[in-house]
């Protein structure tokens, strides 16, 4: 094999790795970081949610990528459920780790979830960060054409424009490399798959559909979200909207 991908796989093999930051005794990075500063909005408590029951087998069988959505808005209850299912915190082990609804290498959970909100009841359109430890949203600075910019960064994929909300998972890479060194770059992509699959399955009982997006201009997305592209960068994107037949 030749090329960048093959080199990445080779250079992240264990024989090429030195001691990790954890092994060198360096301070652990925080469990959560703020990507901006803005007004915060509490989300409905997960315990109070009444999502329609659906069997796991049925959710797996009917799951598919949905690219066309109705014009209906998501409720804040729907959004709360989707955020809880993808990055919700089940338990916090003081400042050392969180245990969430998805698996993550070493319980490092390196992702911050950014939302492009188009149609969610009770929320203004714009960009938000999900603060998982508090189960709340923080509004981020956003240009008036944020939807158009993110759509363009995703090579014009129209489901970003027509979605009720689009999820962008941002890696805070030091959370994983602190423990695993360069091999941590492999793990964040595995972790992203776990998160997005939960989004697909959790969308079914609330009558929503999901389309994952891996084709995007990294620099343009990072620029829109004010990320440095090195320590923090977008890894995966997914558009979500109410299914047309559920409108």
Describe this structure in words.
- By secondary structure, this protein is of the alpha+beta class.
- The protein has a single domain, classed as NADH Oxidase (3-Layer(aba) Sandwich).
- The chain is about 30% helix and about 20% strand.
- It contains 8 helices and 9 strands.
- The strands form 2 sheets. A 7-stranded antiparallel sheet has the order 1-6-5-4-7-9-8, sandwiched between helices. A two-stranded antiparallel ribbon has the order 2-3.
- A hairpin with a 4-residue loop joins strand 5 (about 125-130) and strand 6 (about 135-140).
- The chain starts with a helix and ends in a 5-residue tail after the last strand.
- The model has no long low-confidence stretch (mean pLDDT about 95).
Question: How would you describe this structure in keywords?
Answer:
22% strand; globular; 247 residues; NADH Oxidase; two-stranded antiparallel ribbon; 8 helices; 9 strands; alpha+beta
In short:
The chain has 247 residues and is α+β, with helices and mostly antiparallel strands.
Portion of residues within helices: 25-40%
CATH architecture: 3-Layer(aba) Sandwich
Strand content: 15-25%
How many domains in all? Answer: 1
DSSP strand count: 9
In N-to-C order, the SSE pattern is HEHHEEEEEHHEHHEHE
Biggest sheet statistics: 7 strands, antiparallel
N-C termini distance: 49 Å
In the CATH hierarchy, what is the superfamily?
Answer: NADH Oxidase
Mean pLDDT: 95
The top-level CATH class is: Alpha Beta
